[in-house]
Amino acid sequence: MKFPGRRKLKHYFPVSQPKPVLPSSEVRPDKDTYIVGLDETIVDVVANVSDELLERFNIQKGLSNLVDANTASAIYEELAEQKCISAHFAGGTIGNTIHNYSVLADDKSVLLGIMSANIALGSPAYHYICHTSSKVDMNHLQAVPGDIGHGITLITPDGERTFAIAPGDMDELDVDHIPENIIAASAALVTCAYPLRHQGKPIKQAMLKALEYAHNHHVPTVLTLGTKHLVEENRDELLSIIKAHVNILAMNELEAEALTGLADPLQAANAILDHVDVVLLTAGPEGLYLCGHTDDSVKRETNTIKSASLTDFNRWEFSRPMLREACENPIKVFSHIDPYMGGPEKIRNTNGAGDGALSALLHDISANHFHKEAIPSSSKHNAPFLAYSSFAQICKYANRVSYEILAQNASRLSRGLPEKEDSLEESYWER
């Protein structure tokens, strides 16, 4: 009997053979290719509001604001009464990223964080699980008696996003719930800078321990910066963590300026590359930059030269990313892409676009990890590359995923890329 649906290959039920073992939803470190994400588990309530509401509740526009439970309840009640709420979504920058990764790769990922021990219908934890891919392994979450975080995304008429966050127990993740064996066998570990806001909470030490495990086992580590305000308040500590444990740094242009003092995204990325191996920098209507290192012996020249604040900056963008320590003679590589087809006619919500771009980069890194283990003798691995594709091709992929997020007006992918683009995806992976 043929499987239903659209398939590139024909598959039949092996009726004459023993029944196969059903696939496990839990990650198997010795068999699966997966990434690990550590996050503050939180549900987003998305609402369209006026600037007046922000002023009345003393919410700083464009930033991530921590509010107490009473303020959060008052805001939520007013939004519900005025019917401003458009949706409930599972949130968190890393939660978004690994969900998108599992949708794109159609494969497993692992989420580390907390989860309510008792989940009630309609609770934040209920919404979180309902809106997260079934491919995301949640078996390593830490059970807590209280609720996960509750964040309200307030979108003003100019499209700006402002966050009002009631933490709940989302920062109670402790070091004992960081599984070293799961991190050690992963293709990458991704986390964010948000735990630095909570110096007295256990999640900060849990994040640092996860980064330490990944570093000790030579697993690529990825850090997202959060918000400009967060970077400004914790700049020195962030730089210390980045220099010690981070391979890939993801941010937008405002966060890059807060970290380096440089307003030009290209110059900021150039400065950050003195501390990390790869930089993913989203610059709103300017598009995105992917910058990193490769070895001089395997560099590949582009066919379309661009210049900006750095002359001919994209000359080697057809090269593949490498860790700087793996290069005998490292050179910096810069690639840039404009927004996909100019983007949607009207962008109503930019929430999650950067997370989508990062998930595409992680997909490419895990593809390289899988291919290297499956076919180690392939010419694709004649050097210790970090990713499967070139800087330029990863830019295209990341840009396409970001566009899909913007077009569907949601912070997470609800599906993979459209089937009509199969041929584009095939040519992408063949490159």
Please provide a written account of the structure:
The chain is α/β, with parallel strands linked by helices and 431 residues long. The protein folds into two domains: 158 residues, 3-Layer(aba) Sandwich (UDP-N-acetylmuramoyl-L-alanine:D-glutamate ligase); 212 residues, UDP-N-acetylmuramoyl-L-alanine:D-glutamate ligase (3-Layer(aba) Sandwich). Helices cover 33% and strands 18% of the residues. The chain is built from 13 helices and 16 strands. The strands form three sheets. A nine-stranded mixed beta sheet has the order 7-5-1-11-12-13-14-15-16, sandwiched between helices. It has a five-stranded mixed beta sheet with strand order 3-10-9-2-4, with helices on one face. It has a two-stranded parallel ribbon with strand order 6-8. A hairpin with a 5-residue loop joins β9 and β10. α3 packs across α11, α9 packs across α10 and α11 crosses α12. The two termini are 35 Å apart.
